[in-house]
Amino acid sequence: MMTVSDALVNLRQALRPLYSPPEADAVTIWAMESLSGKDRLAQLRDADLELSKQQEQQWQHYTEELLKGRPVQYVTETSYFFGLKLRVNEAVLIP
Known about the structure:
By secondary structure, this protein is mainly alpha-helical. 57% of the residues lie in helices and 8% in strands. It is built from five helices and two strands. Helix 1 (4-15) packs antiparallel against helix 2 and helix 1 (4-15) runs parallel beside helix 4. The longest helix is centred in the first third of the chain and has 16 residues, at 21-36. The model has no long low-confidence stretch (mean pLDDT 95).
């Protein structure tokens, strides 16, 4: 089983060739928030919790899509605009 911490570390390292370290961190945190519903602080607090099988499969999908260079907003189907959380897809310009 994969923990929240394992998932974060693995994705962050995988994204380093595509993004600067701060951007890789932001994308990783955004993806985990989408997966788990937990903000950054909760992710740190719950780092030792194990992901469910379904979450692991979704995380693998996120990882594959992000490594293809797809924007995190399209991968997670969420974007934020003036404090609003919006559902987006590739037919929508990212605000």
